[in-house]
Amino acid sequence: MLSLLGYALVALLIVFFLKPFLKIDRNIGAYAFPFGIIYIILLISADNEMFDAFWYRYVGISVGVFCELIFLFVLFRQNR
To answer: What is the pLDDT of residues 29-46, one digit of tens each?
Structure first.
């Protein structure tokens, strides 16, 4: 489970590094999209030995998908 937090930290650092190039708003929903995408890509490309149990990876991917859903919810709510 600690590996999920490590990958989340790496994804968060990458998002903060890319922030000037992506011109992200100060809205939490705007950060959810790049974080979710990067987190999912990191978890899919990670080695199986990095996780204590095989299902930890799928929990992390579910968190990434949930971040994408938060982004879509915020996006559709602002466009009304």
So the answer is: 888 889 999 999 999 998
The answer to whether the beta carbons of residues 52 and 24 sit under 8 Å apart is: no
Domain ranges across the chain: 2-78
Burial of 51 (0-12, 13-18, 19+ CB in 10 A): buried
Residue pair 12/37 in contact (Cβ under 8 Å)? The answer is no
Cβ proximity of 3 and 38 under 8 Å: no
Spatial CA neighbour of 73 closest among 31, 42, 29: 29
What 3-state class would DSSP assign to 27? coil
Stated pTM of the model: 0.85
- First vs last C-alpha separation in the chain: 39
Look up residue 35 and give its amino acid.
F
- In whole angstroms, what is the distance from residue 44 CA to residue 31 CA? 20
